[in-house]
Design brief:
By secondary structure, this protein is mainly alpha-helical. It is about 60% helix and about 5% strand. The N and C termini lie far apart (about 55 Å).
Amino acid sequence: MEALLKLLNSPHQDSDRLCRIITVVTRRAGSAAADLLCSGDYAVAYPDSIIHYHGGRVFDETALTKEKANLLAQYLRFTSNYYAWQLARKIEDRFRLLFLISRSKFGGIRGKYPHRQMTDFDCFLDLIMGKLSPKGKVVCEAARDRYKRYEALLSQIPKKQKKGQRPALLEAEQIKVLLDFELEANKKNIEWTFRNGGLGTVTDDFYLLTEYLEGAEDDHLKEWCADFGKFAISAAEKTAIDAIPDEQERTRRIIDLVRPIIAPVWSFFVALCHALQEGENPLTAKDAYWLGLIDEVLGDNDMCALRLLMEYKDDPPPPPLSAPQSNTGTSDAKDKPKADEEAKA
């Protein structure tokens, strides 16, 4: 799949202009084919097609030892993390657009829950969950649980190295926080121990945080905030920011204002890309659209397709009416321009 994708993205033999790739699934796209589908500049699915994502796997006929099992576990964790971030790079524009066009419906969603303080992210998640099939909901719930785990741990764990600090010392501080977190979370279970599963959870949480912090520290979150900012700030805030002479300061102010809205969406998006790399996830075409994996489901008017927006044209004006005829059978040339103007109007 990667080799094919590199060939498709290679420069044309007569120029350095890259091709625009349109990918389509008619019946089923699984595993590498699912990755190839979402790699297109524009990805389309037939209504009854299935897009199947799953976790990494290794096929080996040799004997399995403890050492080899540990090595395979590390390899599978690395590949799952790698492909999750590759998927994120491929679909982030789709997911951002999906969130943007969904905001017009948030008012109605808040109306359904008058006694709850619904953030934009809460409304977005409620909207998505209402559109998914049962198997699509399983993926979304796994991403939601992973996102909540992020939020709980990030509020306590040290995130950056101190000046001159060895990376291992920061990791040691993080692991200590994770140990305390697990002890507190399981304090009512007297049978719980680190030896019987607890240490494995600490290990999983350590890698979970590492993968998230690597992404959160990336410039992508700031790019999301900067790109989305002009659609999220109020008119008064926009006027105040436009009055700032320094462009970098204007951008910084927009990011500061929009971050509380975008950060939860970004965290959930990262969690979703990782959730798709775990277990078996056969998704319907509709699921794939509402999770931001594809651009369009053919023939489904319930979903806003970017192609239809870009190809939209106003209806052509009606043809001009014929000029009125006089009793003598000849047209009144003096009144013809006036009649043409009325026809155009």
